[in-house]
Design brief:
This protein has an eight-stranded antiparallel β-sheet with strand order 17-14-16-15-19-20-18-21, with helices on both faces. A five-stranded antiparallel β-sheet has the order 7-8-12-10-11. By secondary structure, the chain is of the alpha+beta class. Helix 10 packs antiparallel against helix 11 and helix 12 crosses helix 14. Strand 7 and strand 8 form a beta hairpin. The protein has two domains: 110 residues, Uridine Diphospho-n-acetylenolpyruvylglucosamine Reductase, domain 3, CATH 3.30.465.10; 212 residues, Vanillyl-alcohol Oxidase, Chain A, domain 3 (3-Layer(aba) Sandwich). Helices cover 32% and strands 25% of the residues. The protein binds flavin-adenine dinucleotide.
Length: 438
């Protein structure tokens, strides 16, 4: 074992809404160390939670016994440029991965809003970006190596243990410790970003053409208004319209973080101003176009802290869900300070993926830290559940295993693999017991 820290300073996630202290912190240096740690923990009747970058809003990564941190785990990096396959340590951040891929003329086909997550953490909760033809990041996974709850090191791919692969591509860390992940990449590419304000009704009225006509589409609805900001990203041959450093800093850092943080603080101190702030924000956003390296266009810094719930819905349910959301926001006894984000993904066949078997529209509701949010999130959840929604595994929700089993046709198959790989529930915690069952 490379390191078992005797002291266990408190751990908290990015949003600061999940905090806890583990009984020990395990820092394995190799897959053999991981296997030894799992075997000795199982023998002692203990539990392990692996944490990535702590960017989940739920208690999914919270350790109630031992916490495993994989930042010292040194496995081989291998890049096969001809096959566009890369194998990396599971604890590598997406930021580091994007840099590695760029140096080899490769890229991930799609990404979410940020790149701070680890590869394992991102795929374990079904992290996704937007793009009607793109599945979540787990759909790029070709193979994984994981250490099971009995300390067995298992390599899984389409040829070896394909059932374990289908379960482990989105697994909430319930099947074992991912030590290595092989991802299918694409040639490095440039995106042309176009951001523009619009009316929500116009966007919804033309939605199939909008999402079918661009590689990646998302929009933000500003509560208390009828306005949205639409963002499309399309692959182009040349990076001929880059943002100047100054404009990039002004828009993506200063306005999106510093000014927005100030507006949120004001809205929290004087809630009656929130609708006005939302309206001013919606009006202040102007049109802009630029090009850039794909990962740099997909991902931007997020420094304003918030809590979030996100639901994947059958795409056709989007207008009804948004109409209900507008009524919910108007009826709340407090104000909502964050815009609502809408994205799109393609169907996949990963058992616990939010996109299993269907094209999704995602609706993400946020609230600034320190503001009330539970009645808002619960009311939206009731609507989303009624429309067949599946909650993001890394974002706040209130569903339990019985209710989630009904939303995922392969839930029982996942449990069967879990029983086989982790018979003693070494990789459980109270949150997992709640959402996956004992
Ligand atoms: C600012 C912000 C922006 C975000 N943007 C998006 C977005 O655009 N799209 C989206 O879908 N989500 C987004 N998320 C959610 C985020 O992508 C997920 O919660 C993701 O799981 C976080 O990854 P992490 O490395 O921080 O993992 P953690 O939150 O630390 O852990 C997540 C899960 O992975 C498990 N895990 C981690 N490492 C391993 C391992 N080696 N083996 C087995 N299990 C492991 C943990 O046990 C836990 O169950 C965002 C979150 C924040 C805070």
């Amino acid at each position: 074992m490379a390191g078992t820290a005797p002291l266990t300073p408190g751990w908290s996630n990015w949003a600061g809404n999940q905090r806890g202290s583990a009984t020990a912190i395990l820092r394995p240096g190799s897959p053999t160390d991981v296997a030894e740690a799992v075997r000795s923990t199982a023998a002692a009747g203990g539990r392990i939670r692996v944490t990535g970058s702590g960017h989940s809003f739920t208690a999914v990564a919270l350790a109630d016994d031992r916490r495993m941190d994989l930042s010292d785990l040194a496995t081989m990096v291998s890049v096969d440029v001809a096959q566009r396959l890369v194998t990396v340590p599971a604890g590598m951040t997406l930021h580091a991965l994007n840099g590695l891929l760029a140096r080899h003329g490769l890229a991930l086909p799609n990404l979410g809003d940020i790149d701070a997550q680890t590869v394992a953490g991102a795929i374990s909760t079904g992290t996704h970006g937007t793009g009607a033809a793109y599945g979540c990041l787990s759909t790029f996974v070709e193979a994984i190596t994981l250490v099971t709850g009995t300390g067995e090191v298992l390599r899984c791919s389409a040829d070896e243990h394909p059932d374990v692969l289908a379960a482990a591509q989105v697994s909430l860390g319930a099947l074992g410790v991912l030590v290595e992940v092989t991802l299918r990449c694409v040639d490095a590419f440039v995106l042309h970003a176009h951001e523009r304000p619009a009316e929500l009704a116009d966007v919804l009225g033309d939605l199939p053409a909008l999402i079918g006509g661009h590689d990646h589409v998302e929009f933000y609805w500003f509560p208390y208004t009828t306005r949205v900001q639409v963002k499309t990203n399309d692959q182009v041959p040349a990076n001929d319209r880059p943002l100047s450093r100054w404009r990039g800093w002004l828009d993506d850092d200063f306005l999106a973080n510093t000014v927005f943080a100030g507006a949120c603080r004001l809205g929290r101190a004087v809630p009656a101003l929130a609708p006005g702030i939302s309206a001013v924000s919606a009006r202040a956003l102007t049109e802009r176009r630029y090009t850039g390296r794909s990962d740099r266009v997909f991902c931007t810094p997020r420094r304003v802290r918030f809590v979030e719930m996100e639901y994947g819905l059958p795409r056709e349910a989007l207008p009804e869900a948004l109409a209900a959301l507008q009524r919910i926001v108007d009826g709340l006894p407090f104000k909502v300070l964050f815009p609502v984000e809408v994205r799109f993904t393609a169907a996949d066949d990963i058992w616990l993926s939010h996109g299993y078997g269907r094209d999704n529209a995602y609706i993400a509701v946020h609230q600034y830290v320190g503001m009330p949010y539970e009645p808002y999130f619960r009311a939206f959840e009731e609507v989303a559940t009624g429309l067949g929604g599946r909650p993001h595994w890394g974002k706040l929700h209130y569903r339990d295993a019985a209710s989630l089993a009904a939303a995922y046709p392969r839930f029982a198959d996942f449990q069967a693999v879990r029983d086989r790989l982790d018979p003693h529930r070494v990789f459980s915690n109270p949150h997992l017991t709640h959402v996956l069952g004992a």
